[in-house]
Amino acid sequence: MRRPGVFAGTGARLGDVLGSQTSALGLVMLIALTWTAFTTIGGSGFLGSFNLYSIGQLAARDAVLGMAQAMLVAAARMNLAVGGIGAVCTALLGYLLVSAGVPLWLALVVVCVVGVLAALLMGFVELTTGLSSFVVTLAFLSVYGGGALLATGGHQFQIASRVLTWLGNGTLVSAAICPLVAVAVVCGALCWLLYFRNSLGWKMLAVGANERAARASGVNVGRVVLAAYGLSGLLCAVAAIMNASYELNVNAGFGSDWLLPSFIAAVLGGVALTGGEVSVGGILLAALFYDSLQSGLTIVNVPSYFIELPQGLVLLVAVLLDQARRRRARPRELAPPAEPDTASVPS
Amino acid sequence: MKRLLSVQWVPLLAATAIAGIVLGFATKQFGTAFNIYTILQTTAIYAAIGLSQMVVLAVADMSLAVGGIAALATIVVGGLYEAQHWPIGAAIAAGMALGLACGLVNGFIIAGMNLSGFIVTLATGTAFTGIAYGVTSSIPYSEIPPVLVSLGQGRVSFFSYLLLPAIAMTVAVGAGFRWLPIGRSLLAVGGNREAALLSGISRARAIIVAHALSGLLAAITAVMYVGVLQSATPATGGEWLIISFAVPIIGGTALVGGEAPAAGCFVAAIVLAAINDVLIVLNVNTEAVEMAEGLLIFAAVISGKLGQSVGRPTLIGPKLPQVARSGGEGSGMP
Fold it and tell me: Model pTM?
């Protein structure tokens, strides 16, 4: 009856299954609500195959971004440099395909390898210096983002590959489904296999939940952290390729607005900010909800200037709901701030 | 003084001064009074942005909403002055009050829900920016009162008037953390949360105060920036994220909290502004400035960490072994 694992760990192993299941159910209901509301207000255009197609196109990329973020958030770290790596990968893809004339398969491989290496470098710096992932990835965000712009000089690359064009602008099965959706689902399936059918994924969650305990149980924390960074970089590269496949005219400025969707998809999807918990199905659903909302707001003629307000509010509400649920589920190890103390502070 | 050399930013300032003198002789443009004025103008803005972040870092939290609050404050000042014809003093006061209110909102959410400042301010900062863009339809207010223009553009030889508010803020924040009971209690909470809790200092209150102060400082920075740009645009603050961390980190603020070297912030602002200027004078791409900031953050943090042992990592940094760092002093009776 209870399908194990798609939206959380398998059964008792991660505990809190009920919580995550309800959050996935909640997301499905949210999506249904959004779709109904926008169809009622905005007319049938919202559910038209053209609109659904573009929602899927964007949601696919955002889901992969969410997974890239989740890789590190689940390991109690964060990746502020998703956009920086994205910029490097986008620029490199454009350069290889357009300026260097490299065959597509080789370009894709090189881009993925570079994405992995770029993230591994951050992981290596974190491990050797003992700095927090926040500082390391913040600094690398500016190094990578600035570096990509500097190297290409803001040059535009017009990608002409037929395969990529089909991937981002063709259709799959029905006119409402972009092939990118399949890419996102495959990425999600692989992530699920990693986390719930593979010891590496388990170790990543263990490091995220309690690094010291993981180390004490014989987990090679350094290697696991590097793996989390590498996989995050790989997913950033995939997101960059997906983004390039539907934009086609690319430059190194891509990626500058990736930070927010990556966190929205991960947090709304039920990835614990404190680490140790991941929900791949939740990320896919969260990305779908987020882009449905964005598209719906455009359809009901909310001015595009306001676009950042709902983004911020969605993230805020997601965080607050998640925290409320978590508090109910189990008390945190660290005592919450003692409110009664307020009165006793001398001023 | 021997102690002077052990202060983290002194070598940095010395190196910058020497590099500046060398450059002054080597190139024609660098040493001119106008160029130094430009550097100091940027310094003032950077220092103010950095202070806004530093007060939150002092309680071992962070704010990604500095830019968003600045955007909102900017359009409130510009809008009230141009569209509502408020006197400029009242418009500025309203902008500052709004900054304070935004900071309070952040603080209450973070402390009340026991969340990390990172994710909350990422969300609220985006929302603030969104409101600023939405309310103005992304059209800047261009009617700027002469007072602000002369503040932002005025100078005596190389001395930019903008330095006056920046120095005042630096001194006020530095003194507040050093001598005011509330400042001490913020540092106590940042330095050792459990110890502060046991000495009867409320972490929740410290977080709220720090974020409110950060919002206020961000709003003041926004007012200063209006004078520099001569336009009140909602795009203000859009590029402040990295600089807001680079300035306090390079200035020696510990990411684990418990320290608030305001003077270090100011020195870091001078250094970053000078680098920015040199790269522009030497005709290097502006993207290189961004890269340089990232690399400098590393240089600063790594040099500051050499020789320190690493303890339990927290969200924003590895926790250092708790040396008896003025931990409970802040709780002393006033």
Answer: 0.85
